[in-house]
Amino acid sequence: MPELELTISAIEAETPLIRTLHLRAPAGSSLPAFTPGAHLQVSVPGLADARCYSLVSFDADPAAFEAPLAYRLGVRLEDASRGGSRYMHGLAVGDTVKVSGPKNDFPLHAAEAGERPIVLIAGGIGITPIAAMAASLQASGRAFELHYSGRSRDQLAFVDELAALAGNAFFVHADDDPASRLDLGALLDGLDTAQHLYVCGPKGMIDALIEGANTRGWPSERVHFELFAAAAPVAGDQAFEVELAQSGKVLLIPADKTILDVMEAEGCDPMYDCKRGECGVCTATVLEGVPDHRDYFLSDAEKAGGKLIQICISRAKTPRLVLDL
Q1: Where in this chain does the record put each FAD-binding FR-type domain (predicted)?
Q2: I want to staple 102 with a disulfide (CB 3.0 to 4.6 A). Which of 38, 88, 280, 322 is the partner?
């Protein structure tokens, strides 16, 4: 991916917790093209891993994607921030940031003959890639509907821009308003399983959408999602051992660390990318033990088989795993 040093040219407060940052090349030249759903990886001083932020666009002009003069990011200040959102909220106009990308792990599918309206669903800051998708679909004349949900209306960013972009295809949902609260089950019941679903937002929303779509017989290739959240401890998690069969090394995986975390700390060099259990790069073969699957990559059959594991996020149901690593 291209590596760039960009300058913060403007900052806007969208809500008390969400700010927009506009990034330009120092010379004012156009930036690398991007596609809807793409993100930048931003280097954060003091953190080993870059932080990913989706590119926002409300412009139905294809040139906004093909030769952008600036990138726009929307960043929410997270209560449990590991440093990324605090850093991004501390930037000022004139500061420079190092980024790589754009990269797209959440692309729109190509237009299909006779396709039904595409359904875009966003929760909170998950609106950032979804907004760019809406702009692209509008530009190409493809039908869609956009559902945007948050705890309250005043916590939703970009509402005016989205309303201007999507018109009657834009629906706002607020948890504190019974009349507009998003009911995923009812929404899915009113759709056709031939329609493509795109969702980005909190893990609970994505899990509910995936489960609801699966229950209603949605083909998995028509359910698209992105979750910018790394593995987090779950109540009841216990430590377990992992033996790396190729070296015989035995690692203790504490409740608050992943297999990948511990392998890196021990000087191993495992392959990985997303750290969210989505991409499949870190797949390992299980030789002994029972994995506790928490990924979004393996099929139900592969999970039931118990022979594969995503070491970036999944854990163990048994005290010990032996992996072919």
Answers
A1: 1-109
A2: 38
